[in-house]
Design goal:
7 strands; two-stranded antiparallel ribbon; 8 helices; about 230 residues; 2 domains; Rossmann fold
């Protein structure tokens, strides 16, 4: 029996664009990229836990016959990942056609970003998908070579209340909650679970744990496993 939480279990991860929690305009753009298998270099930006990496994997893997390489530049892994990336792009992609996912790219020092910019210029037959939390940390010439897509959905006001961001096209926070319910039911079905309205209500009452997808899913499964444990004990 696999006891890992859904959010950490590859079996339950989103495998299509429709399984991601996205605002309408972003979903339409990503669907087009996945359907046509044609896209420019991409810059996915937004807070942690908003689905950037999952979307990057889905888009990259939608290309039939494409070779996908993923690099995690987060924290102490940055230096090794940079060396590996530069080596692979220098030796293994002379003829193009590869897709590179550069995750946590905001952690790459500017001097190294300048080197990577040169790679993008010289290996222009490849495609690059950057995932960043802080777009201000991206070297401007790299940003300028990408089509940017924002993955933030809501924010807290001065009173600590969650509100949807204007670029989402949603009217109220209820629209975001409906999207979270929709995708969580897909994940729950994969895991053989049924989620009740009461369980959703308890998660939405848990101190804005629904600000991003990751924290919402963790809170939801905590509520579900709490109920399962209580039922077992009784």
């Amino acid at each position: 029996m696999d006891n890992s939480y859904w959010i950490y279990n590859e079996k339950y991860q989103p495998s299509t664009i429709d399984e991601l929690a996205l605002y309408p305009a972003l979903k339409k753009r990503l669907r087009k990229y996945a359907h046509t298998q044609h896209f420019p270099n991409l810059m996915f930006y937004g807070e942690a836990g908003t689905g950037k990496t999952s979307a990057a994997k889905i888009i990259a893997n939608s290309v039939k016959g494409g070779n996908v390489d993923m690099f995690d530049f987060g924290g102490s892994r940055s230096v090794k990942a940079i060396d590996k990336f530069l080596t692979m792009t220098d030796r293994g992609s002379l003829f193009g056609g590869r897709i590179f996912i550069l995750d946590e790219f905001h952690d790459v020092p500017e001097a190294n970003q300048r080197m990577i910019k040169k790679v993008i210029e010289d290996r222009d037959k490849n495609r690059y998908i950057f995932c960043v939390n802080d777009i201000q940390a991206v070297h401007p010439p790299i940003f300028g070579r990408c089509s940017p897509l924002q993955f933030d959905y809501c924010e807290l006001d001065i009173l600590g209340e969650a509100n949807v961001l204007s670029h989402t096209g949603w009217d109220t926070i209820e629209d975001w909650k409906k999207e979270l319910i929709r995708v969580s039911k897909i994940m729950a079905e994969k895991a053989g679970k049924t989620i009740t309205d009461s369980q959703y209500d308890r998660v939405f009452d848990r101190g804005n744990r629904f600000i991003n997808v990751r924290s919402f899913m963790l809170a939801l499964e905590e509520v579900i496993t709490d109920d399962e444990y209580d039922a077992e004990m009784n």
